[in-house]
C-alpha cells in the first residue's frame, strides 16, 4: 500500500555475512557510526562492517559491505545493546546485564576504573549532553530490581556515576534528553527532570502486555507507544504539541525520519506523516525486530540480515504527490522540507512547487486557489498566457520553463472542445492579467501581458477593452490591429492607432464607421466623439481635412470642432478665427454658431466679428419677415437675438446695421436701439413714442441708454422723453396719460422744479400726487443723507484731532546736550519730530529713514522750553 513513496528498502548486510555456516545465529542489536556498522548477536559476538554507498546504473542507491572484524566477548550471552561513543572511539556494550567498554576499531575490551555497572537491564545515551565535556558520554542506566535510574558519564579510562534518581516503579525502558528522562514504567509513562526533581505523569501503559517504546526524536521531544495503537508525542513539560499517529497495536519499534514516523510491526513497516498524521507508505517486512535511526539513516534488521530504509529525496516525493494531483499534501511536505534544505535552494524549490500546484488547480478549474499559488510562486505570467493559442505576440521571445510546470499542451488540450470551459478559462486569465498588470509582476514583459489582455477583451467583448486602450498600455500594434479587425472592434482599433500616434488612421477608421462602411455599435455617439477628438487634435491638417465631412454631416455638431478649440491668432498650432470664418462661409448655420461662440461666449472684442454676427441676425430677421411660412414664434426668437446683440455690443458698425433695417416698418424697436447707439435719442424716442406708440418701450429705452452714465445724464434723458410726451405740435397732441405715468413711476429721477415749470397749468395737483410725494420724499431723503454725511465727517475730523493731540502729549524737552535717537548727534535748533513715546529726533533723520525702526513723525515742530 503506498500513497507516496517516501523510502526504499535497500539490503545492507546479507545473512551469510553475519552467520556464515552457522544456523542459529540471530542479530540482537545494531549500532551505526558514520560508515561503520556494528552488530551484536545472540552468540556473544560483535561484528564490525564498513558500509560504502554507491549508485547503480539505474540511479538507485546501494551499499557495498565489507566485514572488517568480529569479536567474541566470552560471556556466552546475547549482546543486548550497543552504543557508539565516537569522540572516545569506544563502543559501550550491554551483555549479560553488565556494561563494558570496547575499542571501536579493535573491539578489544578497554580497562575502565570507577563505577562498575552490573545488573543493568537498560541504558541510553544522552544525545543532548549537559556536562559540556566533549570527551565524555552521558548516559542513564536502569538496574535490575531497583526503582531508580543512575546518571553516569563514560570517560576514556573510567565510568563515573553522577546521580541516582528514584522512580515510583521499576523502569522498563527509557530515553534521555538533557536533564529530562522519559521513562516507561510497568504501568505508565512519565517524564522526570533529574536536575530539579520535577516529574510529570503522561498516560497509562501495560508493559507486560506489549513492549513499550520510548524514543527521543528531537530536542526535549519523545515518541511513545500509547494505548489503542497510537504513536504519541510528548515534550519535556509532558505536553503533546503534535497530533498522534495511528499505527498497529503490535508495533515493536519506531523512529522518526522527519517528516515521517517509521514504525515496525510483525509483518510490515509503516510510514506516517508527522504533518497530517496520514499513512503514506507500507512496506512488507517479515521477521523484523530492530528499527533505529542513526543521524538520519534508518536501519532495519531481521534476526538474520540488515537493511537500510533510504529516504527518497523530498523533491522527488513532492513531485510524486503533484503527479497524483495531491496539491495540499505536496505543499505541506514542501514547507516541512525547509528545515532540511539550504535557504536559497528551498526558495527556488518552493516557488516552483507553488507554480506547479497552481497549474494543477488551474486545470481543475479551482481558479481562486490557482491564482493564490501563482501569486505566491511569482509565476512568470507568460507561462499561463502561452497555454492560450495566439495570445502571445509574434515578437515575444518567451519559451516555456523546462522541465515543464504542467502537462497541458494548450487550452484546447485542456478543455477537449468544451466551450463553456473555454470561456471560464478565458475569464480567469482576464482577471489574473488585470491583477498582474496593476502590480509590478509584469515588469519586463508588459507588451506580452497587454497584448494578451487586449486579445481576450476583443474575443469576449469585454467592457474593459476601451479602458485598456485609453490608458497607458504596451499593446503590440502589429499583433493587436489584425486581431481587433478580425473581431470587428473597429472603434477600439481607432483608439489603438491614436495611442500609437497614427491619428490619421484612427480618423479614417472612425469615419468609415460613421458613414456605415464598417459595422461597430460600440459608440452610438461616435460622430460626436470624432468631432470632439478633432476639436482637441493638434494636427491642423487633419482638422481641415475632416472638418468639411463633419459639417456636411451635421453643421450644428460639426462646428464644435472650432467652438471647443482654443482660438488664438498667435499661438502655434491653434486656429485663427478669421481663417475659420472664411472657411465657414459655405456653411451658414455653422458660421452663425461660430460667431455666436466668439462674440457671446468668448467675448471676443473684435468689430468685424460683432458686425458680421449682427448682420447675420438682421438678415435672418428680414428673411423671416419676407417669408410667408414663417411663424410668429420664429420671428420673435430671431428678433430677440438681434435686439439683445444690438443693446449689449458696442463694437458693431451701427450705420451699416441701421441701413439694413431702415426700410422695415416692423423693426422700429431695432432702429430705435441703433439711434440710441449713435446718441440720437430724439430720433429713438420719436420712433418709440409716435411710430411704435409703446410708452413702456420708451421708458425702458431711457433706462437702458442711461445705464452706463451718471445721474445727470439719466435725468436729462427722462426729461427728453417727458418733452416728447408734452409736445403739442405732433399728431395727436400732448400725451397726458403717458406723461403722468412717466412722472409718477420715476419721481426720483426728475428735477421737480424743472418739471413743474414745463407742465401745463391746467393739470391738477391730485393728478401728480404720486410724483410730487415721490419728489418731496427724494428731496427730504437727499437732505437727510447729506446731513448725516456732514455729521459723520465732523465726527471723523474730531476723532482725528483727538488722536493728534493724544500723540502730541506734553512738552518735549530738547537741549544741546541731548542727542537724536536715530543719528546720535546733538540738537542745534529747537525744531524736531517725535517717535512714539515722546523721544525727540531730527526731522531730517526721520525723512531719510536711516534705520528699520517704526518711526512716526508727528508733523509738528516743538520749541525747547
Automatic annotation (TrEMBL):
InterPro entries: Clathrin_H-chain/VPS_repeat, CNH_dom, Vam6/VPS39/TRAP1, VPS39/TGF_beta_rcpt-assoc_1, VPS39/TGFA1_Znf
CHCR repeats: 565-730
Organism of origin: Cyprinus carpio (Common carp)
GO annotation terms (biological process): autophagy; endosomal vesicle fusion; intracellular protein transport
A Pfam family hit: CNH
Domain CNH: 24-298
UniProt name for this protein: Transforming growth factor, beta receptor associated protein 1
GO cellular component, one term: membrane
Amino acid at each position: 500500500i503506498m500513497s507516496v513513496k517516501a523510502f526504499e528498502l535497500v539490503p545492507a548486510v546479507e545473512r551469510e555475512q553475519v552467520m556464515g555456516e552457522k544456523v542459529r545465529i540471530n542479530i540482537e542489536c545494531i549500532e551505526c557510526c558514520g560508515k561503520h556498522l556494528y552488530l551484536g548477536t545472540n552468540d556473544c559476538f560483535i561484528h564490525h562492517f564498513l558500509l560504502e554507498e554507491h549508485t547503480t546504473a539505474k540511479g538507485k542507491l546501494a551499499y557495498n559491505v565489507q566485514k572488517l572484524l568480529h569479536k567474541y566477548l566470552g560471556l556466552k550471552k546475547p549482546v543486548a545493546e550497543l552504543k557508539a561513543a565516537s569522540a572516545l572511539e569506544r563502543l559501550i556494550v550491554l551483555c549479560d546485564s553488565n556494561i563494558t567498554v570496547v575499542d571501536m576499531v579493535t573491539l578489544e575490551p578497554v580497562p575502565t576504573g570507577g563505577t562498575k555497572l552490573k545488573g543493568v537491564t537498560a541504558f541510553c545515551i544522552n544525545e543532548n549532553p549537559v556536562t559540556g565535556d566533549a570527551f565524555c558520554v552521558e548516559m542513564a542506566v536502569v538496574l535490575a530490581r531497583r526503582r531508580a535510574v543512575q546518571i553516569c558519564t563514560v570517560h576514556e579510562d573510567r565510568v563515573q556515576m553522577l546521580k541516582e534518581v528514584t522512580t515510583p516503579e521499576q523502569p522498563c525502558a527509557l530515553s534521555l534528553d538533557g536533564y529530562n528522562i522519559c521513562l516507561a514504567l510497568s504501568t505508565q509513562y512519565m517524564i522526570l527532570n533529574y536536575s530539579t526533581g520535577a516529574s510529570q505523569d503522561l498516560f497509562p501503559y501495560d508493559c507486560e502486555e506489549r513492549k513499550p517504546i520510548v524514543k527521543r526524536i528531537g530536542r526535549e521531544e519523545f515518541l511513545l507507544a500509547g494505548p489503542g495503537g497510537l504513536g504519541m508525542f510528548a515534550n519535556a513539560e509532558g505536553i503533546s504539541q503534535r497530533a498522534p499517529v495511528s499505527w498497529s497495536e503490535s508495533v515493536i519499534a519506531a523512529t522518526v525520519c522527519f517528516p515521517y514516523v517509521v514504525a515496525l510491526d510483525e509483518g510490515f513497516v509503516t510510514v506516517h506523516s508527522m504533518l497530517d498524521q496520514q499513512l503514506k507508505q507500507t512496506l512488507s517486512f517479515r521477521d523484523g525486530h530492530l528499527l533505529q535511526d542513526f543521524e538520519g539513516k534508518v536501519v532495519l534488521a531481521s534476526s538474520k540480515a540488515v537493511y537500510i530504509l533510504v529516504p527518497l529525496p523530498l523533491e522527488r516525493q513532492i513531485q510524486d504527490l503533484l503527479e497524483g494531483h495531491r496539491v495540499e499534501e505536496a505543499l505541506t511536505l514542501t514547507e516541512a522540507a525547509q528545515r532540511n534544505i539550504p535557504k536559497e535552494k528551498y526558495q527556488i524549490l518552493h516557488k516552483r512547487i507553488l507554480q506547479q500546484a497552481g497549474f494543477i488547480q488551474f486545470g481543475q478549474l479551482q481558479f481562486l486557489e490557482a491564482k493564490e499559488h501563482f501569486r505566491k510562486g511569482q509565476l512568470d505570467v507568460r507561462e499561463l498566457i502561452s497555454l492560450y493559442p495566439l495570445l502571445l505576440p509574434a515578437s515575444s521571445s518567451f519559451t516555456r520553463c523546462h522541465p515543464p510546470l504542467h502537462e497541458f499542451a494548450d487550452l484546447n488540450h485542456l478543455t477537449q472542445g468544451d466551450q463553456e470551459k473555454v470561456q471560464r478559462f478565458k475569464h480567469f486569465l482576464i482577471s489574473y492579467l488585470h491583477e498582474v498588470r496593476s502590480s509590478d509582476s509584469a515588469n519586463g514583459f508588459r507588451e506580452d501581458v497587454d497584448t494578451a489582455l487586449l486579445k481576450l477583451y476583443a474575443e469576449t467583448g469585454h467592457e474593459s477593452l476601451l479602458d485598456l486602450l485609453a490608458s497607458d498600455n504596451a499593446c503590440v500594434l502589429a499583433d493587436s490591429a489584425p486581431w481587433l479587425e478580425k473581431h470587428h472592434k473597429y472603434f477600439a482599433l481607432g483608439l489603438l492607432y491614436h495611442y500609437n500616434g497614427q491619428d490619421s488612421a484612427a480618423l479614417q477608421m472612425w469615419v468609415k464607421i460613421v458613414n456605415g462602411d464598417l459595422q461597430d455599435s460600440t459608440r452610438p455617439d461616435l460622430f460626436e466623439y470624432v468631432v470632439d477628438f478633432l476639436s482637441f487634435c493638434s494636427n491642423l491638417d487633419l482638422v481641415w481635412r475632416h472638418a468639411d465631412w463633419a459639417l456636411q454631416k451635421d453643421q450644428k455638431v460639426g462646428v464644435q470642432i472650432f467652438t471647443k478649440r482654443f482660438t488664438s491668432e498667435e499661438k502655434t498650432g491653434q486656429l485663427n478665427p478669421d481663417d475659420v470664418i472664411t472657411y465657414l462661409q459655405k456653411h451658414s448655420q455653422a458660421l452663425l454658431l461660430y460667431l455666436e461662440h466668439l462674440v457671446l461666449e468668448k467675448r471676443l472684442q473684435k468689430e468685424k466679428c460683432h458686425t458680421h454676427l449682427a448682420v447675420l441676425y438682421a438678415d435672418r430677421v428680414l428673411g423671416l419677415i419676407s417669408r410667408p411660412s414663417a411663424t410668429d414664434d420664429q420671428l420673435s426668437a430671431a428678433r430677440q437675438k438681434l435686439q439683445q446683440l444690438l443693446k449689449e455690443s458696442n463694437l458693431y458698425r451701427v450705420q451699416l446695421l441701421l441701413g439694413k433695417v431702415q426700410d422695415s416698418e416692423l423693426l422700429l424697436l431695432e432702429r430705435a436701439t441703433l439711434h440710441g447707439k449713435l446718441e440720437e435719442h430724439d430720433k429713438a424716442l420719436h420712433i418709440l413714442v409716435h411710430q411704435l406708440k409703446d410708452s413702456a418701450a420708451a421708458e425702458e429705452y431711457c433706462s437702458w441708454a442711461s445705464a452706463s452714465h451718471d445721474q445727470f445724464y439719466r435725468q436729462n434723458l427722462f426729461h427728453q422723453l417727458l418733452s416728447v410726451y408734452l409736445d403739442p405740435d405732433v399728431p395727436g397732441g400732448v400725451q397726458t396719460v403717458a406723461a403722468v405715468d412717466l412722472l409718477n413711476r420715476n419721481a426720483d429721477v426728475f428735477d421737480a422744479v424743472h418739471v413743474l415749470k414745463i407742465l401745463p397749468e391746467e393739470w391738477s395737483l391730485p393728478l401728480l400726487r404720486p410724483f410730487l410725494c415721490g419728489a418731496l420724499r427724494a428731496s427730504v431723503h437727499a437732505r437727510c443723507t447729506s446731513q448725516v454725511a456732514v455729521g459723520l465727517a465732523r465726527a471723523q475730523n474730531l476723532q482725528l484731532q483727538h488722536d493728534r493731540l493724544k500723540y502730541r502729549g506734553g512738552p518735549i524737552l530738547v537741549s544741546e546736550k541731548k542727542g537724536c535717537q536715530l543719528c546720535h548727534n546733538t540738537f542745534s535748533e529747537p525744531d524736531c519730530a517725535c517717535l512714539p513715546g515722546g523721544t525727540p529726533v531730527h526731522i531730517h533723520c526721520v525723512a531719510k529713514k536711516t534705520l528699520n525702526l517704526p518711526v512716526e513723525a508727528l508733523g509738528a515742530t516743538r520749541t525747547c522750553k
